Amino acid sequence: AGCRQPAARNVCSLLARRARGFYAKDAGVAYRKNLGLLRRIMCQESTKFRNVWTTHSASPIAYERGRIYLDNYQCCISSIAQEPRILYQKAKCSKSEKIEDALLLECPLGGMLPSPSDYKSSLIVLTVRNWLLRLSADGGEILQKVYLTSSSCKFRYLSWDTPHEIMVIKSAQNKLPAAAREVSVEDSVLFSLAVFQVLPLSFIGMLEIKKKIFGNSVTDVAVSHGILIVMYSMGLVRLYNFQAITEEFMEQPFDLGDEFNWNGQVGVVGKYPFGLPLNIKITDTPPVLFEASSLANAFQIGGYPWHYIITPNKKKHNGVFHICSLKDNALAKNGIQEMKCCSLEPDWIYFHPDMSGRIIHVGPNLIKVLKLKEVKNNTEQMEIAEDFTIVANRENCVNDAVTVTASGRVVKKRFKLLDDDPEQETFKIVDYEDELDLLSTVAVTQIGADGRAHLDFHCNDHGILLKSIPLLESWDVTYSHEVYFDKDLVLHIEQKPNRRFSCYVYQMVCDTAKDGECSNPEKTERVFCTKGGRVFEY
User: Fold this and answer.
1) φ and ψ at 239, to 5 degrees?
2) N or C: which end of the chain has fewer CB within 10 A?
3) Where are the alpha helices (DSSP H) in 177-320?
C-alpha cells in the first residue's frame, strides 16, 4: 500500500498543499517529478552536452519552444529529435509577404475551444502588408487570416498583454512630415494599436495614440498586464489603466466576420480591403496611474510588496539604480545599487522572472541576487538584502600596475584593464529556466581572435554551481549572441557582420565512457531514481 498523505487541518491548508502538488492524483504531479529527475540527471558529472547540429543562414534565425525557424519563418526545424529534422519547408516568399514579427501560441489549460486546431500549438505572424496569419506550428498551413487595415498605418510588432490570452499589435512610429511639424498638428497620430483575444482569435478593438491626447514628445508605447505604458523623449514614463481606457472610449464592439457600416464604409471585419474598424477613440486624457522619470526610459515594476527600479535621469547616474516603493515612492533601505565597475558595457538589473520578488543585478564579473525584506522593528519600510552572489573565475588574471621582468627591470603600466576586458572572464548572459528551476549564466574569455564561452547552471535558491558546459564554437564578443537553455537542449544563435547568422544545437547525452574512449553504440544506458532521490546509471 502506498503512503497516505496526512489529512489537512483546514480548507486553506488543503488548498495550499494541493497547489504544491502533495497529492499523487493531482494533474501535473508526475510531470513535476519527471522534471526533478531530469534536473538530477542533467547535473551529473557523467552527463554531457554534445554539439549535434550546426547551420548557417543569410537571414535571421529564431527559436521557439523546440522549433528553429529559418528563411523568414518559411522553414521550421524540430530540435527535439536526436538530430534536428525539418517539420516543413515553404517556397520562398515575395517581399510583399515578408514576415515582420511572430508569436508562438499554445493552448491554455482547461476550457472548451471551438475548433480542434485550437488545441495545437500555432504561430501568429504579422506580414509587411498588414496581414495577421495564424499558422500551424508543425505543418505551416494557414489556419486563420485577418486583414488589419488598408490605411497608411504599418503594423510591425507583436507582443503579449497577458501571455497566451491578450495580444497587442503595434504600428511603427508615424513620423510627421516637416510641414506638419512646423505647424504643430495636434491631431496627428503617433502610434496605432490593435488588440485581440486569442484562442479563439477575436477582435477587441483598435485605437490611436495621438499627440493631442498624450503630448508631442511621445517616443514609444507598450501594453503589458492591463497597463498602457507611454514613454517620452525626456525620460518620463507614464502608466494608464488600459482596460479602463478600452471600456470608457469603446464606441462599438465588433467581432471578426461581422458585417459593418462604419463612417460610410461597408465591409466585413478582418476581411480585405476594409480590415478593422477604429472603434476605440480616446477623446480626453485618461487619468495617470503612476509616472516616473528615468534615464533612457528604463523602468521596471516587481517584487512584493510592489517596488520599481529606475536610474536617475542624468547621464552621470548611468549605472546607478534606485529601488523604490510603488505605494509611496519611498527609497528602500540600501535601495541605491551600484556596481562601481569600469567597463565598456553597462551593468544591468531586473526583477527575477521566477516570481519570487527577488532582483538580479549583473556586472562584468559579479552577479548579485537581491531580496526585499522588512526592516527590523519597522514593518512599513523594506530593505534590500543580498541573497547570494556568483563571481566570475578570474583566479589566473594578473593585473598588477607594477611588474618585474626576468632581468630585474621594473615596468609600470600606464593603464588599468577594464572590468569587462575580453581577456578576463566576463558575464554576458544571465537567464532562468523555469521548469528546472535553474539560473543559467554565460561567461566568456577572449584571447586574441579566439573567444571561449561556457554555460553554467546554478541552484536558483542558493547560487551553487551545479554544472558547466563548454561551448565549442569560438565566441567573438563584438558579435550579437543569443543562448537558449530549454530542458535538455542548449541552442546558441550568433549574428556576424553582413547579416550572417549561425545556429549551434547541443543536446544532453548520458555518457559513462571515459574521455578519449568511444562508448559502445549498442550499449543501452538506463537511469532510475530511488525513493531517497539518488540517481543511478548502468
Assistant:
1) -115, 135
2) N
3) 178-183, 211-214, 242-249
Using one digit for the tens of pLDDT, what is the confidence trace for 175-221? Answer: 766 555 555 566 689 999 999 999 889 999 999 999 999 998 999 99
Best CA proximity match to 442, nearest among 458, 453, 451 = 453
pTM equals 0.84
3-state secondary structure 241-280: EHHHHHHHHECCCCCCCCEEEECCEEEECCCCCCCCCCCE
Q: What is the DSSP string of 495-529?
A: EETTTEEEEEEEEEEE--SPTT-PPPTTPPP-EEE
CA angle 505, 507, 510 (to 5 degrees): 160
pLDDT tens-digit series, residues 57-71: 999 999 998 999 999
Rounded distance, CA 378 to CA 398, Å? 46
297: phi then psi, degrees, rounded to nearest 5: 60, 20
Q: What are the tens digits of pLDDT across the range 485-508?
A: 998 999 999 999 988 999 999 999
pLDDT > 70 in the chain, percent: 83
- Tell me whether strands 410-412 and 202-210 are parallel, antiparallel or unpaired: unpaired
- Local structure of 461: helix, strand or coil: coil
Instruction: Look up cell 538530477; give the residue.
Output: 40
What separation in angstroms does the CA of 525 have from each of 96, 223, 512?
51, 49, 9
3-state secondary structure (DSSP) of residue 97: helix
Q: What pLDDT does residue 406 have?
A: 61
Domain ranges of the chain: 93-293
Give the three-class secondary structure for 447.
strand
The letter for the amino acid at 72 is N
Cell of 43: 547535473
